[in-house]
Design goal:
Strand content: 15-25%
Number of strands: 39
Structural class: alpha/beta
Largest sheet: 25 strands, mixed
Radius of gyration: 35 Å
């Protein structure tokens, strides 16, 4: 009889069914309800009727609209931003935007424009940004000037423009950005720049134009937020042409494919007759670099010498007491002392990122930089057995230190004693060998952000983070824990002020239910890319209102008694888990559908089991876990047979007793 009973029970289970709710995606993607839509690259020849009249932001690039006129967008009167990049537009007719009073940005990049009517841009009351990049313009007279009084940025890059002489009556009083990069401009006259007199704090971009001449006085007494002459072959011409000019940021870098002249001391003579706060000279070569090269740099506050093929900075540089920021990324220093930091006593920011050679930190190389607040030495193959007090001697005001992506560092006891004001310390992807039995960070009472991702840490050292009483953000991504588990007593117990904790890719198999007991302030917990199961959510019982990332784990079933721990969180990511979509997980699936507003990455939260539903979005799965008609029939038959069995058993017992009386 037992085999029969098993067969009937199996039949009842099989009678439970699974059903998916089909979904259909709209043609244009809705990015923000009734306001923002993306219709890019859909082969459209007109504005779809499905777009609501309330649309404010429309991304319509890579479609086909050879002609646009006043009926093209007439229904979408609430437009604020319109992107028509590469829609093969040739003609822009009269009053195309006459009904779009709120429109402030029009992007026509990459359209082979043949004609723009004089009144084509009338209508918008606050048109601020106009993009005409790569539209084939060769003469600025092509641009309609009507209704541009409020224009703040005009982008004309990658065209065939040879003169920046703007049309008569072109309004520039509100212009903040004028972009002429990658055109055919070789000469700038006083007449050209006089049209820009009404513009204040203008950012003017001439990158990619080989400027061969600037009329004397063209920039006389003019004030600019930024000027860019990147790629110019002869910087002497630029410096001489900018005499008596005031510029906050001057970008003079070059590019890999530009065969420019080497820079000498004579190149910078014109710099003495202008006022500049920041200069970028990236990728240039210096010829006969000496202290005299920097004679006219004395008023600079920022200097960027990224990838300038430098092996060292000369000693004896004088007068650069105003320099606050120095960028020396991607150069060829062998030792930190080769930058002669004492020449820049007022530095607050120093960047030597991505040095092309193995960088030796030396000792006391930066001790004269008493006001330094930010130091980036990442990606420089730095290796040190005893770090970092001698190397960072006297940096009492340092607040930001980046030593990530370097070779192994040995951290001594109180390794950052010389930098007690540190607020952010980044040691990611640098193998740390902690020599002391206690914490190398114990004097960093002001540290708020600590990145220890992929540092091959000994996480069994429960005192590793001791002393970090104000730590808010801790990244331990890629570090392993003993036996793949975070125990009740762990290194996190000393950092109760944490708000953000990242434990992704730590090969975790389980978490003790009291492992996070002391982390009452946490509001962001990332446990993604581990091998945790549903039972691990028991460790979250005392955490409330947090962002919880459990993506890419081994969660199949979440028991009903653990669902309250998830319900009390604000946002949860369960994507890329092998979720079970059978009746054994019905409580979780029901909870999931009731809490979609809390869940993130719904598209990638899919079923792994049963095979018939593999890849189906969890939100679309409908389970019938009650008894079907067939199931009821089997149960009735089963009960009937059970009664018959009982009757025959009673009769058999009574007969046996009667025979043995």
């Amino acid at each position: 009889m037992a085999p029969c009973v098993s067969c009937f029970l199996l039949a009842v289970l099989i009678s439970a069914g699974c059903k998916a709710i089909p979904s259909s995606d709209p043609k244009c993607t809705e990015k923000e309800g009734n306001r923002t839509y993306n219709c890019e690259n859909l082969g459209l020849r007109e504005i779809p009727d499905t777009l609501p009249n309330t649309t404010e932001v429309l991304e319509f690039s890579f479609n086909f609209l050879p002609t646009i006129q006043n009926t093209t967008f007439s229904r979408l009167i609430n437009l604020i931003f319109l992107d028509l990049t590469r829609c093969q537009i040739n003609w822009v007719h009269e009053d195309t935007f006459q009904s779009h009073h709120q429109l402030n940005t029009i992007v026509l990049t990459g359209n082979p424009l043949i004609f723009m009517a004089e009144t084509s841009l009338t209508g918008p009351k606050l048109l601020k940004h106009l993009f005409l990049t790569q539209t084939g313009i060769s003469n600025l007279e092509f641009i309609p000037v009507h209704n541009l009084e409020n224009l703040e940025s005009l982008h004309l890059g990658s065209n065939h423009i040879s003169s920046i002489n703007l049309p008569e009556n072109f309004p520039t009083q509100n212009l903040k950005v004028l972009d002429f990069q990658n055109n055919a401009i070789h000469y700038i006259s006083r007449k050209d720049t006089n049209a820009l007199e009404q513009a204040t704090n203008l950012s003017l971009n001439f990158n990619g134009n080989d400027i061969k001449g600037i009329e004397p006085g063209a920039f006389n007494s003019k004030i600019f937020q930024s000027l860019k002459f990147g790629g110019s072959l002869n910087l002497s011409i630029v410096f001489k042409g900018l005499q008596n000019c005031t510029i906050q940021s001057l970008w003079l870098g070059t590019f890999e494919d530009t065969d420019d002249q080497d820079l000498t001391s004579a190149t910078f003579e014109g710099l003495c007759d202008m006022s500049v706060e920041s200069i970028n000279l990236q990728k240039h070569h210096f010829n006969d670099l000496s202290s005299s090269t920097f004679r006219c740099f004395t008023r600079l506050q920022e200097l960027d010498l990224t990838a300038a093929h430098l092996k060292g900075l000369p000693s004896g540089i004088e007068g650069m007491n105003s320099l606050k920021k120095l960028v020396l990324n991607a150069n060829n220093f062998d030792q930190l002392c080769q930058i002669n930091a004492a020449s820049f006593p007022s530095l607050r920011e120093l960047y030597i990122k991505g040095n092309m050679r193995k960088l030796d930190l030396g000792t006391r190389c930066l001790e004269k930089l008493e006001t330094l607040q930010k130091l980036d030495l990442s990606h420089s193959d730095i290796e040190a057995s005893d770090c970092c007090n001698l190397q960072l001697k006297n940096l009492r005001h340092l607040q930001y230190l980046n030593l990530s992506y370097n070779e192994p560092l040995g951290l001594e006891d109180q390794a950052f004693k010389e930098c007690p004001q540190l607020e952010l310390l980044d040691l990611a992807f640098t193998h740390l060998r902690v020599k002391a039995p206690h914490s190398p960070f114990q004097n960093l009472h002001l540290l708020r952000v600590l990145n220890l991702s992929h540092c091959l840490l000994d996480t069994s050292n429960q005192h590793l983070l001791a002393g970090l009483r104000d730590l808010r953000h801790l990244n331990l991504q890629g570090n392993s824990f003993q036996d793949g588990s975070i125990s009740k007593t762990n290194l996190l117990q000393t950092v109760g002020s944490l708000e953000i904790l990242i434990l992704s890719s730590c090969s975790l198999l389980s978490i003790d239910q009291q492992a996070f007991q002391g982390l009452g302030n946490v509001n962001h917990l990332d446990l993604s890319y581990n091998s945790l199961t549903g039972d691990s959510t028991d460790a979250l019982n005392h955490l409330k209102g947090i962002y919880l990332n459990l993506a890419s784990n081994n969660i199949r079933i979440i028991p009903p008694h653990l669902l309250p721990a998830l319900s009390q969180q604000s946002t949860i990511n369960l994507s890329h888990n092998p979720l079970d979509c059978t009746c054994s997980n019905i409580h979780f699936i029901t909870w999931y559908k009731e809490n979609l507003h809390k869940l993130e990455d719904l598209e990638e939260t899919t079923c792994a089991n049963p095979p018939s539903l593999r890849g189906m979005k969890l939100s679309n799965v409908k389970l019938h876990c009650g008894l079907t008609g067939m199931g009821i029939f089997f149960i009735v038959v089963f009960v009937f047979l059970l009664i018959l069995l009982l009757i025959f058993s009673v009769k058999f017992i009574l007969r046996w007793k009667y025979q043995h009386i």
